[in-house]
Design brief:
Layout: H1 8-13, H2 28-52, H3 57-72, H4 76-90, H5 95-105, H6 111-122
Helix pairs in contact: 3-4, 4-6, 5-6
């Protein structure tokens, strides 16, 4: 796979009119079938994502960011992106996760750092990365006043 970018593909295929044809390499059809299968899986995944989160703008935006990040990262980060997509499309976001995702949007990170932060927010159990520091809780003092009346004989 050289590129999935629709603008980049024609540039890579460009050649001079006098360029001689070359024979297709061995296993070419197998590679094409593999790429076709990957494409179908990706298309199906995107349809599922769209249907699962149509009503949640924050999830849609995060999925768009993941698609952008997938083009910029390699290796383990690509695997993490697949996990993150699955997490976003299968479980609703908690209020803490929503708050953290909004906080992450404001930060300027490298693609690798963004994937790492998204993993911490969505895949770890310690959501709440952008919570404001908790204020010291002061226990209220409860004063009890006991009043009683004595029985008085008249």
């Amino acid at each position: 796979m050289v590129s999935r970018d629709q603008i980049d593909i024609p540039k890579k295929l460009k050649c001079d009119p006098g360029t001689k044809r070359i024979a297709l390499p061995k296993g070419f059809n197998t590679k094409v079938r593999t790429i076709e299968k990957e494409f179908q899986e990706t298309a199906q995944e995107r349809i599922l994502q769209r249907d699962a989160v149509e009503s949640e703008p924050l999830v849609r935006q995060t999925l768009k960011e993941l698609n952008t990040l997938a083009r910029k990262v390699k290796g383990e980060e690509k695997k993490a992106i697949a996990e993150l997509r699955n997490r976003l499309t299968t479980n609703p976001l908690s209020p803490k996760e929503k708050k953290d995702l909004r906080g992450l949007r404001k930060m300027q990170n490298t693609p690798e750092e963004q994937v790492k932060m998204l993993k911490e927010i969505l895949l770890s159990r310690q959501a709440g990365l952008f919570e404001e520091p908790k204020k010291k809780v002061v226990e209220p003092v409860v004063v009890q006043v006991i009043a009683s009346e004595a029985l008085v004989k008249e």
